[in-house]
Amino acid sequence: MDEKSSSGNQKRVDANSKNEQLEQFRIKNTGNPLTTNQSKKLSNDSEQLKAGARGPSLRQDFEFFEKMTHFVHEPIPERKVHARGYGAHGEFECYQSMKQFTKAGFLQEAGKKTPVFVRFSTVQGSRGSKDTARDLRCKGVKFYTEEGNYDLTTIAMPVLVNQDAMKFPDVMHAYQPEPRTGMPTAAGAHDTFWDYVANNQESLHMVLWIMSDRGILRSYRMMESWSINTYLFVNDQGVATFVRFVWKPVLGVHSLLQDEAQKIGGIDPDFHRRDLREAIDRGAYAEYELGVQLISMEDEFKFDFDVLDPSKFWPEEIVPVQLIGKMTLNRNVDNEFAELEQVAFNPANVVPGIDFSNDPVLQGRLIAYQSAQYHRLGSANFQDLPINRPICPFHNNTRQGFMRYRIDVDQVSYHQNSLADNTPYTTPPEEGGYESYPKKIDGHAIRARSKSFDDFFSQPRIFWNSLTTIEKQHTVEALSYQLGSVVSESVRQQNVDVLVNVDKEMANIVADNIGVNRPSGTNVPVSTSFASLSQASTPKYAYSLKVGVLVGDGFNGQEVTNTINYLQQYGVFVEIISEKLGTVTADDGTKLNVNKTFLTSSPYLVDSLYVVGGNSKNQAKFQSDMMYFINTAYKHYKPIGVASSGQPYFQKADGTNFAGVVFAGNNPNFDSEFVTAIAQQRFWDRR
Hints:
This protein has 16 helices and 18 strands. The protein is of the alpha/beta class and 687 residues long. A hairpin with a 5-residue loop joins strand 13 (582-585) and strand 14. It is globular.
């Protein structure tokens, strides 16, 4: 690859270009004298200026005034939705040239790398809510390309809750805390949300996805996400193709159980944030392959779903996913506020070769995001913040505004001028200027919706048909929990009467669980199913999963050390858990550093257990803590490895099912079998 830019008029970028740009804004305060914002050195930063040690504070204390007023002005308006989030920096590498379909520069060459910044988020909860709420999740990816910034926003379901952007404020008002009480936080288990679902049946499809295991992720590193909206690829011949995007996590798609998600939300509300940051710190970078689904313009009406309907998915079995690149998140943020809270995404931020369809939700989103960022970040100049700034230079005639710190030295600030030779100048499309696709538009100006959007139940039925028995059981449990939290009997009944269109047996079970009448009618007569909609066949790896080692003094040093080394060779994260911090000592003098105690850890925070056992000063308490961890992990179907010294904790009783429990005693293959079990993650046949 040469130094010529694919955009034709910008300097070529590489994977490190954004990091190099951000370096000029990084400030290190360590080792420097304390000063005011005007750089006046401070001699005392602990007491106000007073009239005597016990006297009143003086109004002239400008040092206190600056410090305190800055502090109380630090918060900015949080996002109306997606307030709770986290993310990281990384790079995107193109697998193959997509020149046949798009002229987007970052997709022209195999091997081309583009820096990215990613923010994951929940939807309903505030910034202070928990990570593990049952919720929709978003992934915003900002590509810092040589043609400008490209923002690709996706969500963890392939369908959206509404079919027209006009209804988005309504569904969010219904979903977020009830206005009289401000409760519940980060939960849709309340009357207004389910009242909306029952009376806006287009929402049912996405709600079913949220009620499935997809609604409670194990990790942001294991999150599949879709663009939902239909975009256009446009090539350099001006030929357009409908496109939807999907990010597929290399580690596969995995979830928590409902009980785990609720418990973790209290034990560690930062569970997903911590998981992502720790994994990157350990070199276990989060990886996602970018796939595209392509439909030619002439095939727009070929399918039994409308390609512009955001509440419908494009089945992979019918519209195959073509993997075109991989994103690797390999660098954590330096400052959560400056980067994650101030990053501003907008689906209208596209580059030549990517355009918009008539998708009515997408059309509304193109307007809403810019206004939201003006409100949140306080100025039209938010795009010049370091995290939002393009790598390539930008030139235009906008001026002034709050917090403008660019010093534009030009005499003129208008287009069509002679004083500056009519610069900054426009760029022809063939030289990299953006040109909107000239799609044909006709029709009357009306407020209406296409009748082709009206099938609300066939695809939800297909989704239900595609789930495994265990996935269906979890979905029923989630529906029963959510609707069981609804006070209004009428709302509960209305929802059951809608659910029957998806599956009669499921609706009957939910009705019985929430104390309403079984619904009349039956489900729509659709038997189609697609394997791609289930998590059952997702890739499974032990890599970067967390194993809690339960250990005391006196363990078999050689056996346990060998097993821990073997786990680490496969990239398993090992956490040593014991009675107290410090070290535990083996029978041969080997010492292990204890990372966590029974008090500061939890069986809910690890993916598997390695039960070693041992001795403790308070043996009865040690035994009790061990059994709590073991019983909780077993109940949640997690794999358990048992060292020879841990065997006494597992006494086989009538009906005991040891599926996924691997014993070291007389087992020369223990280490490999344990790693295989860790990768499996759940052993549902313990039931």
